[in-house]
């Protein structure tokens, strides 16, 4: 077997596809953001507006690079980013994400651990809007669009659910005030829920919208920490204090038991509906462990 044939077969292996896809998409986003920062240094725009524009540019670049690369590499239409039904998927996802986060905060409020100190103007939500938009789009393209989708294609939906959820949790171990318990909670809340949302719709718009609404509602509206990180501005100036298992402690509401339970319930509902509609994929036939080619019967 010549070197060209070996290289081709290695490139067909799922881990190679994942690594290459992430490298290409993230590189294009990084280059684009550097360009935006340099461009807006020449303007008089305030930093919050620049950050929002930068977030929009990052979202456009990673969606565009994903669609172009995998459309070329896999020789197929990128149906998971289809514009058909996009608006309904976004609306449904924003509603679900905001409701789940609001229920999480409601439990904290009922436990008398949530106080609203004051309110700000809507312009104070711009920093949270920028962060939530960039994080939601970039993480969903990478975790669900690249990692989950490629693993699922080879090893089936259940293996992809487990592995992508664990990867998502491990990624957040480095966050401020994180812990193994917090990472495990995120694996369930976001890792399982967002992958289940993708399975049910076969669209990335739905998990992107859930992710965005969850983060934005948490930080931009309720003024809480998101995965251990706090923003200086939000619509509501609040004080959250009390038992860590209810409030999430220094990690924020995502570290609470009710956040995990609410998201787990939504995950189970989505998976049950997906099962009834035969949307869960079985593993592909056995493959060569080194090169990824099918093994002849």
Q: How would you characterize this protein structure?
A:
- The chain has a two-stranded antiparallel sheet with strand order 1-2.
- The chain has a domain at 83-276.
- It has 297 residues and is mainly alpha-helical.
- The relative contact order is 0.14.
- The chain is 66% helix and 4% strand.
- α7 packs across α8 (205-221).
- The chain has helices at residues 3-11, 14-40, 47-73, 86-110, 126-155, 157-171, 180-201, 205-221, 244-247, 257-276, and strands at 114-119, 236-240.
- It starts with a helix and ends in a 21-residue tail after the last helix.
Percent of residues in helices: 55-70%
What is the count of β-strands?
2
Strand content: under 5%
Unreliable parts? none
How many helical stretches? 10
InterPro entries: Rce1/LyrA-like_dom
Domain CAAX prenyl protease 2/Lysostaphin resistance protein A-like: 124-216
Pfam family, one: Rce1-like
Protein name: CPBP family intramembrane metalloprotease
Question: Could you write a compact summary of the structure shown?
Answer:
By secondary structure, the protein is mainly alpha-helical.
């Amino acid at each position: 077997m010549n070197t060209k044939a070996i290289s081709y077969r290695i490139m067909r292996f799922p881990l190679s596809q994942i690594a290459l896809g992430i490298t290409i998409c993230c590189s294009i986003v990084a280059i684009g953001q550097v360009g935006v920062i340099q461009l807006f240094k020449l303007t008089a725009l305030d930093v919050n507006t620049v950050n929002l524009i930068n977030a929009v540019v990052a979202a456009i670049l990673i969606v565009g690079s994903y669609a172009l690369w995998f459309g070329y590499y896999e020789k197929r239409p990128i149906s998971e980013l289809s514009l058909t039904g996009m608006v309904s998927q976004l609306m449904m996802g924003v509603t679900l994400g905001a409701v789940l986060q609001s229920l999480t905060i409601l439990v904290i409020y009922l436990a008398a651990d949530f106080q609203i100190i004051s309110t700000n103007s809507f312009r104070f939500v711009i920093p949270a809007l920028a962060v939530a938009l960039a994080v939601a789009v970039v993480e969903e393209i990478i975790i669900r669009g690249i990692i989950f989708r490629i693993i699922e294609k080879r090893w089936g939906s259940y293996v992809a659910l487990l592995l992508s959820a664990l990867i998502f949790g491990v990624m957040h171990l480095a966050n401020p005030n994180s812990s193994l318990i917090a990472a495990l909670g995120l694996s369930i809340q976001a890792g399982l829920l967002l992958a289940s949302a993708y399975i049910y719709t076969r669209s990335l718009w739905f998990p992107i919208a859930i992710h965005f609404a969850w983060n934005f509602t948490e930080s931009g509206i309720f003024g809480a920490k998101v995965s251990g990180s706090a923003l200086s501005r939000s619509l509501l100036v609040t004080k959250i204090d009390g038992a860590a298992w209810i409030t999430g402690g220094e990690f924020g509401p995502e570290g609470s038991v009710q956040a995990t339970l609410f998201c787990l319930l939504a995950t189970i509902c989505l998976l049950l509906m997906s099962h009834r509609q035969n949307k869960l994929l079985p593993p592909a036939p056995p493959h060569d462990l080194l090169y990824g080619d099918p093994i002849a019967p």
